[in-house]
Amino acid sequence: MQNEDQIHEHAAPVPPPHKHSRRYALPIAAAAVALAIGVVGGAGAMKLVRPTPEMAPVTPVAISTMPTSSLVTIKGTVAEIYGNKFILQDESGKALVETGPAGDDGDLVKANEAVTVQGRFDNGFVRASYLVRQDGKTEALGPQKGPPPHRQIADLMHKLAP
CA torsion sign, 20 to 21 to 27 to 30? Predict the structure, then answer.
């Protein structure tokens, strides 16, 4: 008969218990890294396209002195109405005001009505966020909108360029 030492010499080697779990370590680590990259990339993309919450200045400025691409408050008289847009006029000039869906029916303001508009002046017209009537009643017309997304991306690319 063979002794016990001879039996162990001819037996197949038993793989270490850790070998099976090592096979999945690399794919799990790669999946975790890919998930982290996706989360960071998604957060960065949301930051680029989300408008920044801002309040317009309360003190009205003259229409002729509105700074380009900025939040403004202007006060004047409604001169003309074109659907969801109207011309606001003060002593210094005129401005085209866009009211968005709130003014689609053309009944938001009346001709010769004195109003104050808060919004963003960009690309030659004011995107109104708030309309304040002469009696002090305020109407929210929609969220503040920054420049269109394609412009934000172009501005970012310009900043990143060497």
Answer: negative
- Residue 137 has φ and ψ, to the nearest 5°, of -70, 130
The whole-number mean pLDDT for each consecutive block of 10 residues of the chain, a chain of 162 residues, reads 55 58 75 83 70 64 87 93 92 93 84 93 89 88 57 61 62
Predicted TM-score of the model (pTM): 0.56
From residue 41, give the alpha-carbon distance in Å to each of 34, 45, 94, 146: 10, 6, 43, 22
Q: How far apart are alpha carbons 69 and 51 in whole angstroms?
A: 14
Helices (H), the chain: 4-10, 19-49, 149-160
**How far is Cα 82 from Cα 99, in angstroms, rounded to an integer?**
11
